[in-house]
Amino acid sequence: MSEVLIKTEGLCKSFIIGKTGVHVLKNLDIEIYKEDFTVIMGSSGSGKSTLLYSLSTMDNPTSGKVTLLGHDISKINEEEASKIRNKDISFIFQGINLLPDLTIYENITYAAFIDKKNKEKIQIIANEILKELGLYDDKEKYPAEISGGMQQRAAIGRAIINNPKVIFGDEPTGALNSSMGEKVLDILTDLNKKRQSIVMVTHDIKSALRGNRILYINDGKIDGELNLEKYSDEDVKMRKEKIKRFLEEKSW
């Protein structure tokens, strides 16, 4: 049986807008498993990004419990959350958020140096990552000097430098064109094949193809789950049809 990395029990999240309470997540019980590529889908406003943030220390739930890698993160403070982010998890967002005054190499190694790891070891790992991501020749350039797709690859490098147990992605290809988006998805797929656990929010079927488990959220509740075989080039068409049928049943 697969190891549970993240578990929610009665997870609820509400916001106050003006004088009105808006219930975004409603009593969710979810398990996320080790080495899965878990995809969270749903229509706009369904609560998918709020769910991702609640699972990953980015936001505290209003009520209920979230256990992440054995830690109850339901009511942790920012200092405790920062320790988990630096040591155990990482993020890739639609807004790439590289530091503009640092080179690509410096952006990738920044988090590792903050964690006070061995400098020589970091340099070796960073150069290996840069080569794998096709960025080695551009490592001394600044973000503004490279394309959006290359910037997102650098963001992935930054996300994996500390060998996280889970990578969280919020529409990581949303700001990229189709070709650049495919390259980023190829990298994420390759990481998952190497047993990296990934949890990704997307509205895009092409991105969802890369997952082996899809959770569909509707009006703050999990409205369905689709389990697929681990990704392979041979079954793309079949996977796409399964996902389309699944989403059609959910009135996508």
Automatic annotation (TrEMBL):
GO molecular function terms listed in the Swiss-Prot or TrEMBL record: ATP binding; ATP hydrolysis activity; transmembrane transporter activity
Full protein name: Putative ABC transport system ATP-binding protein
GO CC, any one term: membrane protein complex
InterPro entries from the UniProt entry: AAA+_ATPase, ABC_transporter-like_ATP-bd, ABC_transporter-like_CS, MacB-like_ATP-bd, P-loop_NTPase
Similarity remark: Belongs to the ABC transporter superfamily.
Domain of life of the organism encoding this protein: Bacteria
Record has Transport as a keyword: yes
PROSITE patterns listed in its UniProt record: ABC_TRANSPORTER_1, ABC_TRANSPORTER_2
Organism expressing this protein natively: Clostridium gasigenes
Keyword ATP-binding: yes
Gene3D superfamilies assigned to the protein according to its UniProt record, in alphabetical order: P-loop containing nucleotide triphosphate hydrolases
Alphabetically ordered keywords of this record: ATP-binding, Nucleotide-binding, Transport
